[in-house]
Amino acid sequence: MKSIPLLLALVSAPALAQEFPQVFEHKFGTTTLETKPERILTLSYSGIDHYLALGVTPVGVREWYGGYPSGAWPWAQAALGDATIIQIPEEYTYEQIAALDPDVIEGLTAGLTAEQYAELSKIAPVVATEAQYGDFGTPWYVQTQTMGRIAGKEAEAKVLVDGINQRFEDIVAAHPEWQGMTAAVAFADTLPGAFRSDDIRAMTLSQLGFVTPPAIDAADSEYGFFIEFSPEDLSLLDTDLLVWVSGDDNSARIKALTLRTRLKAHLEGREVMADRMLAGAFSYASPLSIDYLLDRLVPEIELAVDGDPSTVVPSAAAEGIAP
Question: pLDDT of 38-63, one tens digit each?
């Protein structure tokens, strides 16, 4: 794994200056940035990580969860350094956006509506998601490359993405047995549920060779990137690998799913438990969180899918969900 200082050194290496104007096609039309913006405001939930990884400090970021200063989780704090970034509320007002006087408003994974796009465009040029990816399905590497173009760091973004993708390729090469295995990233909230293949968490597993079952994608959902279902039928979760994410470090809801203990994935020890920090890295899936994610997740997966039901998966055992 590359250290943060080395990572930043790689993307800070001299490169040919990126030319402007830059044109961005997105679901609401076309946005042109005539000159390199100095004051970037990101409404993408994980936008802070992508910009900090490129050595860019946004003028404002959207508050998400975690409660960390400037919105920087532990894996991003070295890249943040001594900087302080203003966090605007998740449910922001246009006045709060305008007060930061941005040169550009980026919203690749912000769930922008047409009305919001129109109102924000009165403040500054807005770069929204490409239609093909939906509101929250832009892959991490596309986010990094697009944000790199916005910030005038297209070449640096390519170096960053290539380096991380190489790590994925190395892991895939070392684990040919994972290719084509089914995997579900699941949660237990008011109802149990799972993320579709176009969610950033499922896409991360797909880069390792795992496949989201078509039945999860086909299930009815009002949410788009995830589904919920009855606790009386957990069959969609009976996959080769079952990764549970916990946003609050509490596995009580998962253990309360009584039918979970009948799943083959449970009985054969193929469950992995992502605690609050690992679940956060999974949800951010950024150039700064992916190394942390892979460092912790890959060894757990190796144990979970080794074909031996007696193998103990440490995260599952620690949270009391192991068979």
Answer: 999 999 999 999 999 999 999 999 99
